[in-house]
Design brief:
ATP binding, 2C_sensor_his_kinase, 2 domains, about 375 residues, nucleotide-binding, alpha+beta, Heat Shock Protein 90, elongated, about 60% helix
């Protein structure tokens, strides 16, 4: 008869550190059987104390071995068993050696004391081991919380440094450069234009890093319903203002709200800018559309650029200091996944590239949103 796979042995309790516990129970069962056999006693109390303690110890071994305890804990459990058994066994031993007291079936009394003591020690040892493990786990959680808090404070410091020091200095550089550009021409104007453009890219990078730092400090409890169509329209307006020569087509219906936070605008700001900056077409155009489904909202950003080669596509959303697409798309991926959504390249080729962002819609009636 073939045993079904589902019935094949799968017990994971075999831990060599717990073997002495099982050995204690087996030896007690063997000793109990011998004492019961040769004592010629068949009362209920003799049956119980001959076989029950060893059976309970073996059952306790199985139960204890199911707990994921370190090996040194089993040593302490065995120590509890031996110590308790020896302590209880001392009572019948003292009675046996006492000349003033006569005990009926002294060997049976000694066996019963050892069995009860062993089982009691097993319970006490497992309880102590479990308490120690709970205390250790609580300490690990406390240390993890402290570490997370230190990390949060450090990130806040970096965020403050970017926001108040570095960004302010870059803004000063960009402002002074724009003033000089007003009176410059020729090679001087070209050089100043390069400085201004690089300062703008530094500003964008700082804003993305700030958004990323904010994102990794937040958790799901900070997410809330956000008006997607409002965010999209604001970012489209921004890109039109920044790049007036780029044609922009939109199909943004009233999409309701999606599960996100205030950084949702960073997702589309980076996608739209990416579609413009890397578009080498003579007449750049982008299209932004949103489609509402029952369980998802899909936003598509399409450009008429040259498409993305395979090596670029494979690492497009990775955090890398190489490549032309920088940190922005990695931020897009980080944020959308935090929102429970996703971003991917839906299509790419000579006619252009389409990025698709999927987000979770929110039923405001069930969320109690104001």
């Amino acid at each position: 008869m073939t045993i079904p796979l589902s019935l094949e042995p799968s017990v994971k309790f075999v831990r060599w550190g717990s073997a002495p516990i099982a050995l204690f129970g087996v030896l007690h069962l063997v000793a109990g059987g011998l004492v019961f056999t040769f004592s010629l006693r068949s009362s209920t109390i003799h049956v119980i104390f001959s076989f029950l303690p060893g059976t309970l110890i073996i059952a306790g071994w199985y139960w204890a071995a199911q707990n994921d305890l370190p090996s040194d804990r089993y040593i302490r459990i065995v120590g509890w068993m031996v110590g308790t058994a020896a302590g209880l066994a001392l009572v019948p031993v003292l009675l046996i050696i006492s000349p003033a007291i006569t005990i009926d079936a002294p060997v049976f009394g000694l066996l019963a004391a050892i069995g009860v003591g062993g089982f009691g020690g097993l319970l006490a040892g497992v309880n102590e081991a479990s308490a120690i493990e709970r205390a250790r786990e609580a300490e690990r959680e406390r240390l993890d919380r402290e570490y997370a808090e230190r990390q949060r404070e450090q990130l806040e410091h970096v965020n403050h440094l970017l926001r108040h020091d570095i960004l302010n200095n870059v803004n000063v550089i960009q402002g002074r450069t724009e003033l000089l550009l007003a009176d410059a021409d020729g090679e001087e104007a070209a050089q100043l234009d390069t400085i201004d453009r690089q300062a703008g890219e530094i500003t964008e990078l700082i804003q993305n890093v700030r958004a990323y730092l904010h994102a990794i400090q937040n958790d799901e409890e900070t997410l809330k319903p956000i008006h997607l169509s409002t965010v999209l329209e604001q970012e489209v307006t921004t890109i039109k203002t920044a790049y007036p020569d780029v044609g922009v087509d939109t199909d943004i219906p009233a999409t309701g709200r999606v599960r996100a936070d205030d950084l949702l605008s960073s997702v589309f700001r980076n996608l739209l800018r990416n579609a413009v900056v890397h578009n080498t077409s003579s007449r750049p155009r982008i299209a932004v559309s949103a489609t509402v489904h029952d369980d998802t909202v899909v936003v598509r950003v399409t450009d008429n650029g040259p498409g993305l080669p395979s090596p670029v596509r494979e690492q497009l959303f990775e955090a890398s200091d190489q490549g032309d697409h920088g940190f922005g798309l990695y931020l897009v991926k980080t944020l959308t996944e935090q929102y429970g959504g996703s971003v991917h390249i839906e299509s790419t080729g000579e006619d252009g590239t389409t990025f698709a962002v999927e987000l979770q819609p929110v039923d405001t009636a069930t969320q109690g949103v104001q």
